[in-house]
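How it folds:
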Amino acid sequence: MKITVSHQSEMKFEAKTEKASFIIDCPQISPIEYFLSGIIGCTATDIVMLPKQQGFEVKNLSVSGEVVRNETSPKKFNSLHLEYSFESDADDILAGRWVMASLETYCSTINTIRDTTSITYTIIHNGTIVRDHETMISGGGSNVDFGTLQGCNA
């Protein structure tokens, strides 16, 4: 992947990707807001695609993210809470699995920050809170002990 950002005027920049281009208009939307939008957009895409691949349909999807950052530079993300709200024709367990698959495996942007950012999530499925402020299994500096892994002796 390659993206080129070129200064246009004042605080406007054009970002050119391999597929398209868009304008970054600071301070209307800051680069960090674009970054957070990319994270949320990545996981939202998974929550539409994964169910579709399994013959389910997601409706009224909304994913919001709230970040706590350092107060001084570098103002990196310390924590991120994602709230997923959607309706589907699946049960709550499967809906939770879609979110977990996105967070733990498929969403590249989440996987890029998960080792340095504490990530929690809430799932509201068909109007019911099915997970509330859960912590990701991996990343976020967590010390999850997966035990001793048994491998093949060569």
Q: What stands out?
A: The first strand starts at residue 4 and ends at 9. Residues 141-147, 149-154 have pLDDT under 50 and may be disordered.
